[in-house]
Amino acid sequence: MSGFGPFSFFKKILQTNRQTPSAAPVSIGDKFEQLDEGLSIWTVERISRVQVSSFPLISMIREDRPELTKTVSLTALEDGEDFRPALQ
């Protein structure tokens, strides 16, 4: 198992004990701003639970370019580093 080392094991322990920081769960239709050099708005299209992750995966489409899609972990949306909820 090349992906299993002492640091990944420690990280996994921390993630399983982590509380969800947001007060409200993410829902289909929610909009998020991507915090990058240009303003882009992404809409949640699908929420998937997979066996390999304890966190759901969020599929989003870009509002002004619907052919662009992105799949991120729920924690990526909640940590506030790359995305923030868009004001509607």
How would you summarize what this structure contains?
This protein has helices spanning 6-16, 74-78; strands spanning 31-34, 40-48, 57-62, 69-73, 83-85.
Structure overview:
The chain is an alpha+beta fold. The chain has helices spanning 6-16, 74-78, and strands at residues 31-34, 40-48, 57-62, 69-73, 83-85. It has a five-stranded antiparallel β-sheet with strand order 4-3-2-1-5. It is globular, with a radius of gyration of 15 Å. The termini are far apart. Residues 16-23 have low confidence and may be disordered.
Strand order of the largest sheet: 4-3-2-1-5
Q: From the alpha carbons, calculate the radius of gyration and give it in angstroms.
A: 15 Å
The averaged pLDDT comes out at 78
Q: Which of globular, elongated, flat, extended, rod-shaped describes the shape?
A: globular
Structural class: alpha+beta
Helix-strand topology string: HEEEEHE
Low-pLDDT runs: 16-23
Report how far the terminal alpha carbons are from each other: 46 Å
Number of helices: 2
* Share in helix: 10-25%
Q: What does the main sheet amount to?
A: 5 strands, antiparallel
